[in-house]
Amino acid sequence: MRVPRCCFAVLRGEPSRFAGRSQQGDEAMARGLYVPAYDGEPLEMRDFEGDAIGTAVGGLMEAVDIPALGITVYVNEEGLLRRLPFNSRVSFAWWYYVPEARRSMLVGDAVIVGEPDIDGADTDIPESTLEMFINPRQWGILIDPGGMPASGVMPDTMLNHVLLPLVAGRPQKVVSTACYASCFDAMAWALSLGERWPEMDDFAILPMSQVLEHFGVTPSE
User: Fold this and answer.
1) Are 174 and 163 in contact (CB under 8 A)?
2) Rg value, the chain, Cα
3) Checking DSSP bridges between strand 139-144 and strand 202-207, what pairing results, if any?
4) Residue 215, by phi and psi: left (phi above 0), alpha (psi -120 to 50) or beta?
5) How many CB atoms lie within 10 A of CB 78?
6) Which band of pLDDT confidence, cut at 50, 70 and 90, is reported for residue 154?
7) What is the largest CA-CA distance in the chain?
8) All residues at 6 or more sequence positions from 53 whose CB lies less than 8 Å from its CB, including other chains
Protein backbone atom coordinates (compact mmCIF):
# COMPACT_ATOMS: atom_id res chain seq x y z
CA MET A 1 0.00 0.00 0.00
CA ARG A 2 1.35 3.41 -0.93
CA VAL A 3 0.47 6.02 1.67
CA PRO A 4 0.86 9.65 0.48
CA ARG A 5 3.50 11.51 2.46
CA CYS A 6 3.78 14.63 0.31
CA CYS A 7 3.66 15.54 -3.35
CA PHE A 8 7.08 14.09 -4.09
CA ALA A 9 7.65 11.42 -1.44
CA VAL A 10 5.60 8.50 -0.24
CA LEU A 11 5.98 6.08 2.62
CA ARG A 12 5.46 2.47 1.68
CA GLY A 13 5.50 -0.68 3.70
CA GLU A 14 5.15 -1.76 7.30
CA PRO A 15 7.55 -3.70 9.56
CA SER A 16 6.14 -7.02 8.32
CA ARG A 17 5.30 -6.03 4.73
CA PHE A 18 8.16 -4.39 2.93
CA ALA A 19 7.56 -2.33 -0.21
CA GLY A 20 4.02 -3.55 -0.71
CA ARG A 21 5.26 -6.70 -2.35
CA SER A 22 2.81 -9.33 -3.47
CA GLN A 23 2.24 -11.97 -0.82
CA GLN A 24 0.91 -14.55 -3.29
CA GLY A 25 3.22 -17.42 -4.20
CA ASP A 26 6.94 -16.72 -4.35
CA GLU A 27 8.25 -13.39 -3.09
CA ALA A 28 8.65 -10.83 -5.82
CA MET A 29 12.22 -10.06 -6.77
CA ALA A 30 13.46 -6.75 -8.11
CA ARG A 31 16.86 -5.97 -9.57
CA GLY A 32 18.16 -2.76 -8.10
CA LEU A 33 21.11 -0.65 -7.07
CA TYR A 34 22.49 -0.38 -3.54
CA VAL A 35 23.83 3.14 -2.91
CA PRO A 36 25.98 3.52 0.23
CA ALA A 37 25.72 6.84 2.03
CA TYR A 38 29.47 7.38 1.75
CA ASP A 39 30.19 8.34 -1.84
CA GLY A 40 33.64 6.75 -1.71
CA GLU A 41 31.99 3.33 -1.63
CA PRO A 42 30.96 1.76 -4.95
CA LEU A 43 27.40 1.23 -6.13
CA GLU A 44 26.32 -2.41 -6.09
CA MET A 45 23.86 -4.26 -8.30
CA ARG A 46 21.69 -6.58 -6.21
CA ASP A 47 18.56 -8.70 -6.45
CA PHE A 48 16.10 -7.71 -3.72
CA GLU A 49 13.37 -9.98 -2.44
CA GLY A 50 11.53 -10.42 0.82
CA ASP A 51 12.88 -8.07 3.47
CA ALA A 52 16.16 -7.42 1.63
CA ILE A 53 15.47 -3.73 0.97
CA GLY A 54 14.57 -3.07 4.60
CA THR A 55 17.74 -4.87 5.68
CA ALA A 56 19.84 -2.83 3.26
CA VAL A 57 18.54 0.51 4.55
CA GLY A 58 18.60 -0.58 8.17
CA GLY A 59 14.95 -0.73 9.18
CA LEU A 60 11.61 0.75 8.15
CA MET A 61 11.62 2.16 4.65
CA GLU A 62 10.68 5.52 3.22
CA ALA A 63 10.05 5.47 -0.53
CA VAL A 64 10.78 8.48 -2.72
CA ASP A 65 9.72 8.31 -6.36
CA ILE A 66 11.62 10.01 -9.19
CA PRO A 67 9.18 9.60 -12.12
CA ALA A 68 11.52 11.13 -14.70
CA LEU A 69 13.89 8.20 -14.18
CA GLY A 70 11.20 5.60 -13.55
CA ILE A 71 12.63 4.74 -10.14
CA THR A 72 11.84 4.52 -6.46
CA VAL A 73 14.56 5.33 -3.92
CA TYR A 74 14.30 3.64 -0.53
CA VAL A 75 15.98 5.08 2.55
CA ASN A 76 15.58 4.53 6.27
CA GLU A 77 12.38 6.17 7.51
CA GLU A 78 14.07 7.22 10.75
CA GLY A 79 17.30 8.30 9.09
CA LEU A 80 17.05 11.97 10.03
CA LEU A 81 16.08 11.19 13.63
CA ARG A 82 19.00 8.76 13.85
CA ARG A 83 21.34 11.32 12.28
CA LEU A 84 22.44 8.96 9.53
CA PRO A 85 25.00 10.41 7.11
CA PHE A 86 23.89 12.47 4.11
CA ASN A 87 23.56 10.40 0.96
CA SER A 88 24.75 12.84 -1.67
CA ARG A 89 24.21 10.63 -4.72
CA VAL A 90 20.53 9.90 -4.24
CA SER A 91 19.87 13.40 -2.85
CA PHE A 92 21.42 15.10 -5.89
CA ALA A 93 19.34 12.91 -8.23
CA TRP A 94 16.19 13.70 -6.23
CA TRP A 95 16.86 17.45 -6.20
CA TYR A 96 17.79 17.57 -9.87
CA TYR A 97 14.66 15.79 -11.13
CA VAL A 98 12.22 16.91 -8.41
CA PRO A 99 12.92 20.63 -7.75
CA GLU A 100 10.28 20.91 -5.02
CA ALA A 101 12.30 18.42 -2.95
CA ARG A 102 15.32 20.69 -2.58
CA ARG A 103 14.50 21.67 1.00
CA SER A 104 14.72 18.04 2.08
CA MET A 105 17.53 15.49 2.03
CA LEU A 106 18.00 11.74 1.89
CA VAL A 107 20.27 10.12 4.45
CA GLY A 108 21.73 6.71 5.14
CA ASP A 109 22.28 3.84 2.74
CA ALA A 110 19.75 3.70 -0.09
CA VAL A 111 18.29 1.23 -2.56
CA ILE A 112 17.08 2.16 -6.04
CA VAL A 113 14.58 -0.03 -7.87
CA GLY A 114 12.03 0.53 -10.62
CA GLU A 115 8.69 2.17 -9.93
CA PRO A 116 6.01 -0.25 -8.60
CA ASP A 117 3.77 -2.19 -10.90
CA ILE A 118 -0.02 -2.14 -10.82
CA ASP A 119 -0.02 -4.48 -7.80
CA GLY A 120 2.38 -2.28 -5.83
CA ALA A 121 5.36 -4.63 -6.23
CA ASP A 122 8.78 -3.16 -6.97
CA THR A 123 10.17 -3.65 -10.47
CA ASP A 124 13.67 -3.78 -11.91
CA ILE A 125 15.56 -0.52 -12.18
CA PRO A 126 15.25 0.69 -15.81
CA GLU A 127 18.28 -0.13 -17.94
CA SER A 128 18.63 3.47 -19.11
CA THR A 129 18.79 4.73 -15.52
CA LEU A 130 21.17 1.97 -14.50
CA GLU A 131 23.49 2.83 -17.38
CA MET A 132 23.38 6.51 -16.43
CA PHE A 133 24.33 5.76 -12.83
CA ILE A 134 27.04 3.11 -13.21
CA ASN A 135 28.68 3.36 -16.64
CA PRO A 136 31.90 5.39 -16.59
CA ARG A 137 31.74 8.42 -18.86
CA GLN A 138 32.32 12.16 -18.78
CA TRP A 139 29.39 14.49 -18.20
CA GLY A 140 28.83 18.14 -19.00
CA ILE A 141 26.25 20.81 -18.20
CA LEU A 142 24.33 22.42 -21.04
CA ILE A 143 22.86 25.81 -20.15
CA ASP A 144 20.26 28.04 -21.76
CA PRO A 145 21.12 31.56 -20.52
CA GLY A 146 17.71 32.93 -21.36
CA GLY A 147 18.20 34.53 -24.76
CA MET A 148 21.42 36.33 -23.85
CA PRO A 149 24.21 35.78 -26.41
CA ALA A 150 26.63 33.17 -25.10
CA SER A 151 29.59 35.50 -25.53
CA GLY A 152 28.05 37.95 -23.07
CA VAL A 153 27.14 35.59 -20.26
CA MET A 154 27.96 37.31 -16.97
CA PRO A 155 31.41 38.48 -18.18
CA ASP A 156 32.33 40.25 -14.93
CA THR A 157 31.71 37.38 -12.53
CA MET A 158 33.54 34.25 -11.47
CA LEU A 159 30.74 32.26 -13.07
CA ASN A 160 32.19 33.12 -16.45
CA HIS A 161 35.33 31.14 -15.55
CA VAL A 162 33.41 27.87 -15.46
CA LEU A 163 31.44 28.45 -18.65
CA LEU A 164 32.58 28.03 -22.22
CA PRO A 165 30.51 29.65 -24.98
CA LEU A 166 29.96 27.23 -27.84
CA VAL A 167 28.58 29.19 -30.75
CA ALA A 168 28.67 26.57 -33.51
CA GLY A 169 25.09 26.32 -34.66
CA ARG A 170 23.41 27.56 -31.49
CA PRO A 171 24.88 30.81 -30.11
CA GLN A 172 22.34 30.97 -27.27
CA LYS A 173 23.70 27.87 -25.54
CA VAL A 174 26.69 27.47 -23.26
CA VAL A 175 28.31 24.45 -21.70
CA SER A 176 30.48 24.16 -18.62
CA THR A 177 34.21 23.92 -19.34
CA ALA A 178 34.48 21.24 -16.66
CA CYS A 179 33.88 17.57 -17.34
CA TYR A 180 32.50 15.47 -14.51
CA ALA A 181 33.34 11.86 -13.81
CA SER A 182 29.81 10.89 -12.81
CA CYS A 183 26.27 12.05 -13.42
CA PHE A 184 25.97 12.73 -9.67
CA ASP A 185 28.86 15.23 -9.76
CA ALA A 186 27.31 16.89 -12.82
CA MET A 187 23.94 17.14 -11.04
CA ALA A 188 25.57 18.75 -8.00
CA TRP A 189 27.32 21.41 -10.08
CA ALA A 190 24.23 22.02 -12.20
CA LEU A 191 22.19 22.59 -9.06
CA SER A 192 24.86 24.94 -7.74
CA LEU A 193 24.85 26.92 -10.98
CA GLY A 194 21.07 27.11 -10.80
CA GLU A 195 21.25 28.59 -7.30
CA ARG A 196 23.90 31.14 -8.28
CA TRP A 197 22.34 32.05 -11.61
CA PRO A 198 18.53 32.11 -11.15
CA GLU A 199 18.07 34.10 -14.38
CA MET A 200 19.01 31.17 -16.60
CA ASP A 201 16.11 29.62 -18.51
CA ASP A 202 17.15 26.00 -18.16
CA PHE A 203 20.03 23.61 -17.67
CA ALA A 204 20.61 19.92 -18.28
CA ILE A 205 23.32 17.36 -17.68
CA LEU A 206 24.37 15.27 -20.66
CA PRO A 207 27.20 12.89 -21.52
CA MET A 208 29.91 15.02 -23.13
CA SER A 209 29.53 13.11 -26.40
CA GLN A 210 25.90 14.26 -26.58
CA VAL A 211 26.84 17.81 -25.61
CA LEU A 212 29.25 17.97 -28.53
CA GLU A 213 26.74 16.41 -30.91
CA HIS A 214 24.20 19.00 -29.76
CA PHE A 215 26.52 21.63 -31.22
CA GLY A 216 27.20 19.72 -34.39
CA VAL A 217 30.67 18.58 -33.28
CA THR A 218 31.64 14.96 -33.84
CA PRO A 219 33.38 13.61 -30.72
CA SER A 220 36.86 12.23 -31.29
CA GLU A 221 37.59 8.59 -30.55
Assistant:
1) yes
2) 19
3) antiparallel
4) alpha
5) 15
6) low
7) 65
8) 18, 19, 32, 61, 74, 111, 113, 122
